[in-house]
Design a protein that fits this description.
Elements: H1 9-16, E1 36-37, H2 39-44, E2 45-55, H3 59-66, E3 76-80, E4 85-89, E5 110-113, H4 116-126, E6 131-141, E7 144-154, H5 157-182
Antiparallel strand pairs: 1-6, 2-5, 2-7, 3-4, 4-5, 6-7
Length: about 180
């Protein structure tokens, strides 16, 4: 009779426990999940306050966002007090190609999740003339998608020019300091 030693293949793997073991550290790092910033909002608005809220997404939207496809550039938020709700408008999440016929509409209105007290606070803030709610950042916290909203006040054209001039001056100072450090 032939012994089982040295047969090789899967039988040796079972006998000697040489099969691949599951790695206990299979968790994804935080850098694997995409983060979408609305840099245009920081340029166009003075940011007064921020708040983190959840967002209601369909399955194909989640897959598309995890692939790294989303644009917050044109997004804005409206507040309704009758049924206390926040609605996100004009945020573009492109279709997830493998979903086929079960895909979502790219620019549909999406519900945001916040507590009643927070919604009332945001409604009072938006009632002031020139103040609006804009999305700053879209990211995942664990398995949940979150949006960072900003209570923002619009900048005038001269404010934008001042911001550009300040940024250029800061950059010039940094260059001068780095040149000085080389010698």
């Amino acid at each position: 009779m032939i012994g089982f030693e040295g047969i090789g293949g899967w039988w040796d793997a079972i006998l000697w426990g040489v099969m691949a073991k599951k790695n206990k550290n299979n968790k994804k790092s935080k850098t694997d999940t995409p983060v979408f910033d609305n840099r245009r909002a920081r340029y166009d608005y003075f940011i007064e306050d921020t708040i983190e809220v959840g967002i209601v997404l369909e399955g194909s939207e989640v897959k598309s966002i995890r692939e790294g496809h989303c644009s917050l550039k044109e997004g804005f938020v409206t507040v309704d007090l009758e049924p206390h709700r926040l609605t996100l408008h004009q945020v573009d999440i492109p279709p997830y190609q493998p979903a086929g016929a079960l895909n979502h509409r790219p620019k549909r209105d999406r519900m945001l999740l916040a507590k009643k007290r927070e919604i009332e606070k945001l409604a009072r803030a938006v009632d002031v003339k020139g103040v609006t709610l804009v999305p700053l950042k879209l990211y995942f916290s664990g398995a949940h998608a979150k949006i960072s909203l900003a209570i923002a006040k619009g900048k005038a054209q001269h404010d934008k020019r001042n911001a550009i001039a300040d940024r250029e001056n800061q950059r010039d100072m940094q260059r001068a300091m780095s040149q000085r450090m080389k010698f």
